[in-house]
């Protein structure tokens, strides 16, 4: 005759089995999240580097045209948005980079800015 397993033992085994299953599921998801976070960090670093390079282009253009341009601290996202929205030189360059101005038109507008020294 078969041995009868008490209900409490069966319930405990079911709980233990369920916990082991969920533990494996959690560990798999945790490993997946770790990999995603690692990739996200790499992408964020690449994006930040590209943003710095874009700002360098604006700095180079400002130096070339002798336009005084002082960017806020790099961590000041709101300050960067404000300067790009309000600075006339940057507004002209944004129009040029978006294709709404030709190089000749852009140059003329920059040279027409107030306090622009002739070169």
Detailed description of the structure:
By secondary structure, the protein is mainly α. The chain folds into two domains: 1-50; 65-119, no CATH class. The chain is 73% helix and 0% strand. The protein has helices spanning 7-64, 77-86, 88-97, 103-111.
List the helices and strands and how they pair.
Elements: H1 7-64, H2 77-86, H3 88-97, H4 103-111
Helix pairs in contact: 2-3, 3-4
Number of domains: 2
Structural class, please?
mainly alpha
Oligomer: single chain
Helix content: over 70%
Shape by Cα distribution: rod-shaped
Rounded mean pLDDT is 92
How many runs of DSSP E, i.e. beta strands? 0
Beta-strand residue percentage? under 5%
Largest sheet: none
- How do the SSEs run, as a string of H and E? HHHH
Number of helices: 4
Q: Roughly how many Å is the radius of gyration?
A: 30 Å
Stretches with pLDDT under 50, minimum 5 residues: none
Instruction: State the distance separating the first and last CA atoms.
Output: 106 Å
